[in-house]
Amino acid sequence: MIKLDAKIPEGPIAEKWTNYKATQKLVNPANKRKLEIIVVGTGLAGAAAAASFSELGFRVKIFGIHDSPRRAHSIAAQGGINATKNYPNDGDSDYRLFYDTVKGGDYRAREANVYRLAEVSNNIIDQCVAQGVPFAREYSGYLANRSFGGALVSRTFYARGQTGQQLLLGAYGALSKEIHSGKVTMFTREEMLDLVIVDGRARGIITRHLITGEIRRHAAHAVVLATGGYGNVFFLSTNAMNSNGSAVWRAYKRGALFANPCFVQIHPTCIPVHGDYQSKLTLMSESLRNDGRIWVPKKKEDAQKIQRGELKPTEIPEEDRDYYLERRYPAFGNLVPRDVASRAAKERCDAGYGVGNTGLAVYLDFADAIKRLGRDAIEARYGNLFQMYEKIVDDNPYETPMMIYPAIHYTMGGLWVDYELQTNIPGLFAAGEANFSDHGANRLGASALMQGLSDGYFVLPYTIQSYLADQITVPDFKTDLPEFDEAEKRVNDELKKLIGIKGSQTVDHFHKKLGHIMWDHVGMARRKEGLEEAIKMIKELREEFWKDVKIPGDLSGKNTELEKAWRCADFLELGELMARDALMRNESCGGHFREEYQTEEGEALRDDKNFTFVANWEFKGVDKEPELHKEPLKYEFIEVKTRNYKE
Amino acid sequence: MDLTLKIWRQKDSKSKGGFKTYHVKDISPDASFLEMLDILNEELIHKGEMPVNFDNDCREGICGACSLYVNGRPHGPDSAITICQVHMRKFKDGSTVTIEPWRSRAFPVISDLMVDRSAFDRIIQAGGYISVSTGGVPDANEIPINKMKADEAMDAAACIGCGACVATCKNASAMLFVSAKVSQLALLPQGQIEAKRRVQKMVKQMDYEGFGNCTNTGACEAECPKEIKLTNIARMNREFIGAKLGAQKMKL
Ligand SMILES: Cc1cc2nc3c(=O)[nH]c(=O)nc-3n(C[C@H](O)[C@H](O)[C@H](O)COP(=O)(O)OP(=O)(O)OC[C@H]3O[C@@H](n4cnc5c(N)ncnc54)[C@H](O)[C@@H]3O)c2cc1C
Ligand code: FES
User: Fold this and answer.
1) Domain B3-110 adopts which CATH fold?
2) Which chain A residues have a beta carbon less than 8 Å from that of B141?
3) Which residue in B2, B30, B5, B35 sits closest to B20, CA to CA?
């Protein structure tokens, strides 16, 4: 029987973390050297954690699938990172960021975790500045801020449109420093394929070297998964090509609980899909909504003419434009949270007012901002994004409005963790996008970077010691234990099975099909029948995959298709769990929108009485129903309300 | 569009490689260059051949993974852009496109179009950071930084570590890459404290990795997808000479 204990410390919300740190167990410096930690992932969460562990004196092995830690997907984050510095003097505070995040997450996040996140947010900015992260500055020499969706204050720090890159390079610098010191060993191009559990504790991983194909064993006293999100289950998303859910999925299959799998974020401002050869979607940063105004034509005839290429957006007079976000949500306007903005775009397009040749796009228009601030100011703010847009679409956004449409972007769901970021498997921790912890049913912009770095720099280095304090007498593990034999055999068997299928369809064929099922039924709008249908279709597709996938080559050496097949096989199981979770949750909240549960105005309708809980799923076998374990959510420091961005 | 592709194929680092010719048909001009390669790979798999290996991940020009030498230029025909962002409309229908990996002694080929760029990581490990540990740092606004300096640091920090500068340089010099990091940190007050130590250690590692000397041809700047400037090299040279002349004697 799994017993869930979130281990939330006692006391008032603002004192919990301080109390925790004051009383937690620590490991003394001499003992730290005896303990070894495996970190999987070199993104913000993984790199920050590994560097910080090593600085404390622990030995660390860190793994990534890329050729360099600097290429982790965090590198692609554009817009910014939140912190409660209140430099602009506009009324920000830890409580306000906490409040905004819990509200933005539609009251489905754990209060204590979120408050801690707000509390350490300022330390992150200090740390990054000390590392030489070149954040944007004012002429005074002080740091600049901008606003993001879901907030009434300007609390977002940024480095042009490359904030993730700069933060990751900061963490990569810290990690490089520790690699140089010899306390961190970096394993590049090495993919975790399974988790090894010895006597109920996470004790190691099985990996495959992506160049040689060699299967390897690694042991440690604790394992941290910081492997990012699983948005690529939809095939098309803003995630990088190699982003995947396999590490967390394998942990799930070894007994870790998977929390809120159906909570995915659909980002309102992405470049629309243009062809079936398309490999991924490109995000246009949310920061653009600071100055860009979103609209579609008021008249259906105009929309149709635009779709046929007979009319240009610049030819539509002001009075015939529908700035639908400003119309529906006067208080937040174009800066409503992502889930709200995405659904509003879908609503307009479904009603026939969409633009572009597919009718699946809306305008993001900078004409007013350019008039107000001048082209130079806009170029200084968003130049690289405009350039990126022009390269992809072949249209100049300074002269004609951008076209955008929602796309899969982020996964709020992930491995269940307690306050210490430990999963229900002792010794297994999850950080960054890989855990479920802080964003509830919808994440606010600029808060994933904050969470990844908070977990890595300021939370795990403390909380992991609570666990490791008990491990000081445990000698280094050998990888010749039967548990390692067994795990390696399981991996080898599965790889052999995959390569042996020699079917007729490529991995991408199945992955794209899965993506369509997910987008149509488990995407922006979900309903009971569709979800039931999706579960059936995914099962069939999975069976077909295991009969008919075609992977060329063999198990040795570089085999990209084999890597893709492994990840796709996991997505084909994970997709089903997402649909099940969405089907179980008979309410709409945040990014989870069930068409049956909406207000007359088309807003999400929560059911707090029955669904104020974290849905945690326990694996029972691939074709068996998983078991649901609920962690009830208590709101002691925030009054639970209906989200309102209108006034 | 129909295209003839001449692609470098090489099973692994030990094998001898060579060009192979392929044909692709009906490619949309709106497809990206890498999507065109995806289409080719799908066909190869169907034919039972091994697909062409190439590094890529973000496909947004930021991770620095993609690294193709196309028609004699790193990242292909357009400037200030990575190959993952180049779209097929930049090519002529019916033309022949030659695709090779980066070529440099310090970047050995691993498989087909993939090379080993870990030398860059080792240069950074040697000193490409500010040696600050987590915690115990002052408030972020404690040290105001001149906006122009901060912007200049950001210009240098925009390097994505792709290695196009090395690939295009006839001497296979890594000066642009190294100088971008040296400059970024030397421009900021936080980074100045260990600036001398940093530049010496990084340059030493760079030489050790087998990169060539810089003879100021400027090819690196011209081909850099992030438009990293040659002035960074000048700044690094100043830092380096200053460090050598300086009284600070240090063991590397
Ligand atoms: C285009 C884009 C823009 C964004 N912009 C913003 C923004 O402006 N602000 C914001 O707050 N958030 C933003 N986000 C979200 C944010 O970037 C991510 O949520 C965050 O960076 C995730 O960091 P991470 O450390 O958890 O994982 P990642 O950075 O995804 O790193 C995952 C790591 O795990 C490794 N890995 C994965 N699987 C395995 C395996 N099986 N074995 C070994 N290693 C493995 C990878 O190599 C990688 O190193 C954006 C996201 C996208 C897609
Ligand atoms: S794939 Fe990331 S820069 Fe090209």
Assistant:
1) Ubiquitin-like (UB roll) (3.10.20)
2) 85, 87, 142-143
3) B5
